[in-house]
Amino acid sequence: MNFNIAIIVSFLFLADYGAASQVLDISKFGGAPNSDITQAFANAWKEACESTTAVKIVIPSGTYKLNAIDAKGPCKAPIEIHVDGTIQAPRNQDEIKGDTQWVKFSYMDSLTLSGKGVYDGQGAEVWKQKTGGPAWSGKGKMPKVFMNFGFNFVNNTIVRDITSKDSKNFHVLVFACHNITFDGFTISAPKDSPNTDGIHLGKSTNVKILNTNIGTGDDCVSVGDGTKDLTVQNVNCGPGHGISIGSLGKFTTEENVERVLIKNCTLTDTDNGVRVKTWPNEPATLTITGLHFEDIIMVNVRNPVIIDQEYCPWNQCNKQVPSKIKITKVSFKNIKGTSGTAEGVVLICSSSVPCDGVELNNVDLTFNGTPTVAKCTNVKPIVTGKAPACQAPAA
Ligand SMILES: *[C@@H]1O[C@H](CO)[C@@H](O)[C@H](O)[C@H]1NC(C)=O
Ligand SMILES: *[C@@H]1O[C@H](CO)[C@@H](O)[C@H](O)[C@H]1NC(C)=O
Ligand SMILES: *[C@@H]1O[C@H](CO)[C@@H](O)[C@H](O)[C@H]1NC(C)=O
To answer: Which superkingdom heads the taxonomic lineage of this protein's source (predicted)?
Structure first.
């Protein structure tokens, strides 16, 4: 090797591993490929968490088995977990030792997950057991909830480059987190895998989901109550159920949803595009405000643009009693592409608290080559540019 190249290579190596971080290779704790590294990880985490300088736990290429981990802070310095290998969750229910989250982080500040690695939830066996309808119907058999990742009370965190595959339930739960960014992240599960939502957010602020590809069996991103300052940008979704705000309204403890920007996203063959849903006949009286959807491409999306305040799957509720959730300041701007139905825009707002400040600006969707129509109830959208005018409601 030429001397100059050697210098450049070692410089890159240092830059990649972060000159300031102490590296803890999983092999130091007995973690070897083709073995179960649960205990090795727990030991590495303990050492990392007690370190007063930044630490990087490295899991190199190879395939590893990992049972549930419960990585808790507070820790003394930033921790990065760099995975280049494939980590597999237990395949069967009865092997799972944790509660509801496989790779679980709580009470952390300054956490980074990186690498080209794959976290494989191996959900296929468990998905098969979910048959016969939803759990509450009494007909369905519902296996234990087990999500690939749980971030609970975690701040100033970055998840980049890694892949979440075939989660048994939601891929990622973000709960009570502040300042967490997903960048170059990949989520992958089959179209027919049940309840495999991509990223579900609740009670969290300053969340960014950037440059991410999500293909899964349920919502790509689902935004729960108390989400504030969310940006979803340069994201591809499909297959899946789209990007959803809600469903909201069931619990009086729910908090407002404020300032959500969904920008430059493409949805392909999804059930919904961008959707806001609230339950009728439920107690919560919160506000959803400041939602901006712009530069969105729809490719054969069944319901591309939808606000549904009579959300009531399986007809389990009374639609006569309106939702109490107020929706204000919502803009749909530069939304293009193809719809799987003639109604490209459906805005069904609450009769007790109609939607305010809804704008449609250049919403240009076609169904079988013809422009789609808009259906509007309890809302008078401001329409500019090319966009479907609201049809008079059917008599
Ligand atoms: C995270 O940030 C919140 C809000 O600033 C703070 O109350 C909480 O203590 C922080 N948690 C950690 C683990 O640093
Ligand atoms: C968010 O977290 C990242 C990663 O720790 C950090 O670099 C950035 O400064 C934080 N931003 C804010 C506003 O705290
Ligand atoms: C839009 O997102 C795609 C990825 O889905 C990216 O390649 C492209 O650069 C983005 N465009 C802009 C203007 O940011």
So the answer is: Eukaryota
Pocket (CB within 6 angstroms of ligand 2)? 110, 156, 158, 179
For the chain, residues with pLDDT lower than 70 are 1-20, 130-143, 392-395
pLDDT at residue 279, rounded to an integer: 95
Alpha helix (H) residue ranges in the chain: 3-17, 38-50, 124-129
Query: Which domains does the chain carry?
Result: 2-391 (2.160.20.10)
- For the entire predicted model, the pTM comes to 0.93
Judge if the beta carbon of residue 109 lies within 6 A of ligand 1.
yes
Residue among 179, 204, 228 whose CB has most ligand 2 atoms within 8 A, to mutate: 179
Gap between the Cα atoms of 279 and 22, Å rounded: 50
C-beta of 264 in contact with ligand 3 (< 6 A): yes
What is the tens place of the pLDDT at every residue in 181-211?
A: 999 999 999 999 999 999 999 999 999 999 9
